[in-house]
Amino acid sequence: MNNDYPIPDNELQRLAALKRYNILDTLPDNAFDDATKLVSYICGVPIAHISFIDENRQWFKSEIGIGVSEVPREITFCNYTILDTKIVEINDTHLSERFKNDPNVTGGFNVRFYAGVPITTPDGYNIGTLCAVDHVVKELNENQRNALSIVAKHVMAQLEIGTKNIQLDAQRKIAEKAVLARDSFLANMSHEIRTPLNSIIGFTDLLAQTELDEVQRDYIESVQIAGENLLLIVNDILDLSKIESGNLAIESEPFNLKKTLKHVYNLLKVKAQKEVDFNLFLDAEMPDNVVGDQGRLNQILVNLIGNSLKFTNEGEVTVSVKKLEETEDNYTLKFSVKDTGIGIHEDKLTTIFERFTQGEESTTRTYGGTGLGLNIVKELIELQHGEIHVKSTPNRGSEFFFIISYKKGNPAQPAVKSMSINNLGRLKILLCEDNALNQKLAKSVINNFGFDLDIAQNGEEGIELLSQNKYDLVLMDLQMPVKDGYQTTEYIRNEMNSTIPIIAMTAHSLVGEQERCYKVGMNAYVPKPFKQAVLLKAIKTVMNPNIELTPKRIIDLSFLDEMACGDLEFKKEMINLFIEKIPSQTEQLEEAFRKEDHDAVKMLSHNMKSSLDIFMLEDLSNCAAIIEEEAAAREFTTETLDKMNVLHCGITEVVKILKEL
Amino acid sequence: MRIILAEDNDILRKSLSFFLESKGFTVDQFSDGKDALDAIETNNYDLILTDINMPGKSGMEITQYVRQTINSETPIIILTSSGVEQTELDSFDIGANEFIAKPVSPAVLLVRINKLLKTRF
Fold first, then answer.
1. What range(s) does the Response regulatory domain occupy (chain A) (predicted)?
2. How far is Cα B92 from Cα B89, in angstroms, rounded to an integer?
3. Which of A327, A332, A260 shows the shortest CA–CA distance to A296?
4. At residue A440, does pLDDT exceed 80?
5. Among A222, A378, A539, B93, which one has the highest count of C-beta atoms within 10 angstroms of its own C-beta?
C-alpha cells in the first residue's frame, strides 16, 4: 500500500473549511445523487462519485459503482486532485509511473481511467472531489471536461446553500426565543403593574363615590386621571406587543357609527381648553350602521383627537366624517381630525408614525406621552386595510385623516334585549381570590350591584364553599396558591360536574390566556383592573342561558391508522393504553415539577412526547418538548409553568374526547 | 427477518412492533436498554432498532457495545426526538447506520429498514 501520499500545504485550513460545511456522515441527498448521475452520463463511465477528504479517509457523499461509504485516505487517487486547481485526468493508469503499481490499478477497483475535479470552497480550499472512473482507457473531450468543472461548481453551490440554511435556521431559532422571552416579560410586567393599578383605580372610584369636600374631590380626581393615564400607557405597550406578534384580532360586529362618534366627542369635550372650539361635523350621507371594530375605531379617534386637543392652545379642533364611496357591500369613509395647534415640521412628517418619535425632542418634556400612540394608530388602521395621512404647517396646525372601508350593517338589526340589574335578582356570588385588597374592592363593587358575595382565599376553599352552598356564579382569579383558577375550574367542571357560570378575572392580558380560560370551561373573561360596567356586562352575559359552547378539538388518528394497518382491535387497544397511561403520567409530571425534580420531569416529558406524537397532538407535543428542554437546562421558568398548564388542560380534553369515541 | 426493537414508550413500541409484524418481520420488543442488550448478545438479529433515551442502557451505549465489544456489523437504526444536530453526528460516529428523527413515519422507517437489509444481503 502506498502510504506516502501528498498532503496539501494548507491542510489544516483545508480541514477547518471542510468541517464548516458539516457534510461528513450526513444522510444521502437527491441533489448530490443527481450530480453524480450527471457525471456518469456525461463521461459515459460506470463509476462516479462526489467525495470529501478529511484527515484519515475519503467519504463518499454520493457514489455510483463503488458500493462503500468511505475508503482510507492513503489509497485514493484524489489526494493528487485536491492539490490541483483544475481537472486531473489520467487516460491510462498502466502508462502512469505514479499509479501503474497502485493496488487499485492492479486489483481492487481496477481503475484504468481517472478524471477528478477538485470541489473548491469560495475561499479557495479543496475540500473534496468530483470524479469519473472507468475500467478501460479513455479520453475526455473539451466539452466533457468543461461539464465536469461546471458540475463541481454546482456541487459547491449546493453545499453553500445547505450551510446557509442551517445558519438561517439557527438564527431563526434565536430570534424566536427572543420574541418568546419578550412576550413572557411583557406578560409578567403587565401583571405586576396591573395588580396594584387595579387597586388604585378601584379604590379611587369607590372613594369618589363617598362624601368629599371640594379640595378632597379635586385631589381624588387628579389621582383618577393619573391612574387612567398610567393604565393607558400599560395598555399601549401591550397593544404594541400584540400587534407585533400578530395576535391582535380585528373584530367584525355591527355598530352605530354616529353614536360611537358622539360618544368619543362627549368623552373628550372636557379635555378641550377654554379658548378652543371643539367641533364634530358629520356628513349627512354618512351611514348610521356599519360592521367593523368599534373598539378600535374608538381607540384611534381618542388617540388622534386627544393629540390635537393636547397640542392646541387656541383656535379650533374639528372632527369630521365624510362618505367617499358606496358600493353594494361597503362604505368607504374618511375621518379627519384638524386643529390649529403647534403643528409639525415638514422634516418630521415622515417619521411621526414611527415608534418613540414625537414632533420635537422637547415634546415629551412639555406634553408627556410615550411616543407610541401614533404608531399604534397607524398599525390599527392598516390592520383594518385602511390608510392614514398627515398634513401640517408649523404654528398653523395639523390635519390627520384616515380612510377605512366598513361592511354595510343591517339597519333592521333587532335591539339586543337589555337586562337591568334588577331582573337578575339578588345573585349569590362566590369570589376565589387571594389578594386581600382585590377581595375588598370586589366586595364593595359587587355589593353596590346589589348582589351577595362570599370569598374563598384559594381554589380549594372555593371548591369547599361551592359544595356546601348554592351559588349563581363564580368569579375566579387565575393566579392563586394551593389550586389556581384553571385547576379549580377543571375540578368544578370535571369532578363536580357543575355547569355554574365562571368568570375569569385576571391581570394577565396576553393573547392565548383568554382561549385557555374558555378551554378549561370558563364562560367569560374580565381583565383587571376591571371596570364596574365591564364586570356587570360579563355577569349579565353569563347569566343569559344562551351560552355558546367552545369548539371541540378534533383528534387526527391517521398516524395510528397507518401503524395499525387497518386493524381496528389494535387501534382500540392503543387508544385505551393512552387513556390509561397519560393522565397518571401527567400527575407524575406535575408532582416532579413541583418538587423541581429536573431529571424526572425530563424523563416523563420525553416519554409523554412520544405518546402525544402518535395521536398527532402537535401543540401538546411541542409543550412537552419545551418542558423537556427546560428540564434539561435544569431551570424552570414561567414559560414551563405555562406549558405545564396547557399540557394538563389539553390532555384532559383529549382523554375526554377519546373516551367518547 | 428478525428485528429487535428497544423503545421505552409503550404505545410507540407496541405500535411499531405491530406495524413491522404486519409487514412480515419478526419483532422482539424491549422497554429497557439493558434487557435489549442481553437479548442482542444471545440472539442473532438482522437489524437493531433503538431509541436513544431509555432506562437501563441508552441507544448510544447499545450501539457502541454492539460495534466495539461484540464487534458485530448488524445494521443499527437510531430513533430519537432530539433535534440536535450533534446527536445525529454522534450516532454515525459510533457506528449507527441510520438516524431517524421522531415522530417516525412508518413508511419511511420501512424504506430505511429494507434498504439496510438489502445492501447487506
1. 428-543
2. 5
3. A260
4. yes
5. A539
Interface contact flag, B11 A564, Cβ < 8 Å: no
Compute the distance between CA of residue A299 and CA of residue B26 in angstroms, rounded to an integer: 68
Q: Closest CB to B81: pick one of A560, A578, A609.
A: A609
- The string of pLDDT tens digits covering residues A564-579 is 888 888 889 999 999 9
Which residues of chain B make contact with A611, given a CB cutoff of 8 A? Answer: 9, 11-12
Q: Write the ipTM.
A: 0.84
Give per-residue pLDDT as tens, B71-87.
899 999 998 876 677 77
**What sign results for the dihedral spanned by CA atoms A72, A73, A78, A82?**
positive
DSSP label at A451?
-
Q: What CA–CA distances, in Å, run from A493 to A173, A184, A262, A325, A458?
A: 38, 29, 44, 51, 17
For residue A419, is pLDDT > 70?
A: no
- Core vs surface per residue B22-57: b (16+ CB within 10 A) or e: eeebebbbbbebebbbebbeeeebbbbbbbbbbebb
Residue with cell 479517509: A57
- pLDDT at position A652: 86
| DSSP summary character for residue A273 | -
Sign of the Cα torsion A472, A477, A483, A484 reads positive
Cell of A444: 364593595
Chain B interface with A: residues with Cβ < 8 Å = 7-12, 14-16, 18-19, 22-23, 53, 81, 85, 89, 92-93, 98-99, 102-103, 106-107
* Cis-peptide into A122, omega within 30 deg: no
Where helices occur in A353-470 by DSSP H, the ranges are 361-367, 373-383, 436-449, 459-468
Report which secondary-structure segment, H or E, holds A572. Answer: helix A568-594
Q: Which of A282, A279, A355 is nearest to A312 (CA)?
A: A279
CB atoms within 10 A of CB A142: 7
For chain B, report the end-to-end CA distance as a whole number of angstroms. 11
What pTM, to 2 d.p., does this model score? 0.39
Residue (of A437, A649, A419, A637) closest to A528 by Cα position: A437
Other beta carbons within 10 Å of A397: 21
Residue A118, preceding bond cis, omega within 30 degrees?
no
Angle ∠(A366,A369,A375) on CA atoms, nearest 5: 130
The whole-number pLDDT of residue A109 equals 84
Give the CA distances from residue A206 to residues A221, A224, A436, A467, A597, in Å, rounded to whole numbers and listed in that order. Answer: 12, 11, 16, 32, 47
C-alpha closest to that of A71 among A95, A53, A86? A53
Contact: B19, A613; criterion CB under 8 Å: no
Radius of gyration of chain A from Cα atoms?
36
As given in the structure block, the three cell numbers for residue A184 are 413572557
Q: Which residues, 6+ apart, have CB-to-CB distance to A361 below 8 Å? A: none
Closest CA to A355 of A334, A367, A372: A372
Which cell is A657 given? Answer: 374526547
As given in the structure block, the three cell numbers for residue A373 are 400612540
User: If DSSP codes are grouped into helix, strand and coil, which group holds residue A654?
Assistant: helix
Interchain proximity A22–B107, CB inside 8 Å: no
Q: How far apart are CA A159 and CA A23, in angstroms?
A: 8
- Of chain A, the end-to-end C-alpha distance in Å amounts to 69
Size of interface A-B (CB pairs under 8 A): 65
- On the question of pLDDT at A62 being above 60, the answer is yes
Does an H or E element contain A606, and which?
helix A598-614
Any residues with CB less than 8 A from the CB of A228 and at least 6 apart, and which? A201
**Residue type for position A280:** L
Partners of residue B99 in chain A, C-beta under 8 Å: 27
